[in-house]
Design a protein that fits this description.
3-stranded mixed beta sheet, globular, single chain, about 25% helix, HIT family, subunit A, 10-stranded antiparallel beta sheet, alpha+beta
Amino acid sequence: MSQLRLNPLTGRWVTVAVERAARPGELISRQLPVESDPGRPCPFCPGNEEATPPALETYGPSGGWLVRVVPNLFPAFEGHEPLRVQNLGPVFTQATASGVHEVLVFAPEHDASWADLDDKHAGLAMAAIRDRMEDHARRSTVRYTQAIVNAGREAGASLEHPHGQLLGVPFVPGEIAEEEAGFRRFEGSCLLCTTVEAEAQAGHRVVHDDERVLVVCPFWSGAPYEMLVIPRTHEVHLENTAPADVVAVGRAIRDALRLLRAQVGDTSYNLVFHTAPHHHEGPFHWHVHIVPRLTSLAGFEQGTGVMINIVAPELAARHLTS
């Protein structure tokens, strides 16, 4: 029988309906090519640096690089104008999309992924994210920075070369506002600190556990093999986190993605880094969502916002760690 499970971060219900996994072709690995013209030179490969704007940050040995951060050639957010809302009519409200849009090229190898990074390299990728968030926090017009990795066409990638994006926006997105509300609703200590304790004790949804990071298929998983990466040290802002904890999160993401690849093959996925909005000091605990794109969103999910998960998180964790 299907179950409803409440996601305490967002206050939304998800449905765990394992019987639907028996439908033919329900789980899919990566199918669509990422690029429409794979023969064109890759702007992110070493030797093609002139194809991008000058790097904002470069990490790695002198004379080469392992991680680069460059401005996005086609930014969704740009400019330094403060958020000014204009009411153009009874239902027409707009504002300038000012902010920052950057590309994180986290490996020089064209066919690599986060799962292929060694310990040091995973740490460099996380250091780049931390440093750019720190830079964004100093900008008065940027209220929140979203770091993401879209891997595969089904996850929204438009270039094959491994990369992520950092988007500094002049407002607090609804998803983050909902998570902040979830932390405020939770009575007692921090919602995710409590989750770490409860999941570690339960054990059967744990994918990775070390002294600094816990990775689980959370009780309220809305997608097959969804994972939540939680630093054990409580910190509201990613950019204020101790370097050792930041590096440990990068390694834990790497290890979790390796387990995912071993279990379901080369599938598309999203990494979504959630940290508190800049200058917010309310209850929060930064974390990372790993969302494999093994199923498609149909009309019910899009119409209601209620996700249907056909692989129970307890079973997903068992598959990943077996």
